[in-house]
Amino acid sequence: AEQEMLDLQQKLHNQKTFGxxxxxxxxxxxxxxxxxxxxxxxxxxxxxITGGExxxxxxxxxxxxxxxxxxxxxxxxxxxxxxxxxxxxNCINATIxxxxxxxxxxxxxxxxxxxxxxxxxxxxxxxxxxxxxxxRIISGDKQMFKRIILENVKLLPYPDMMSPxxxxxxxxxxxxxxxx
Length: 180
Known about the structure:
Mean pLDDT: 90
Structural class: alpha+beta
Shape: globular
Radius of gyration: 17 Å
Oligomer: single chain
Distance between the termini: 41 Å
Number of strands: 8
Strand order of the largest sheet: 1-8-5-6
Helix content: 25-40%
């Protein structure tokens, strides 16, 4: 069994990775109680998505806002449709944001450098039990993990976006979101 795990690790390391194929970043370096977070929107603010609002297959519904002038990271990145991954949890919790939401430090974001057509498929892949298993192998965590590390997400194998199954998965995941 140990040799099989070593063989699997070797195969994983020979694949293209999310780090090679995607733009990945951590959200704004602010806490929940930061003075730049507001309870009501204004003409100069954008929705702020927290880790608690980032749930598997759920469109985030922000309850806080942040002034555009307080955003330190690239607004261009935030304006892209993006996959969100909650940092804290016992498995990978991925969803999608198409609202140009800003994220806090407890959320990671990614979008493909190319192949942006099937971003919903990436949510399905990341939320799979198989990718939880891959994550545990890559991170060396033999128990259920409590925190997702961005550097380990970058090492996950990136799916073959030319596979005939990707458009099907993309369509299924989109449909799943529409039933919310």
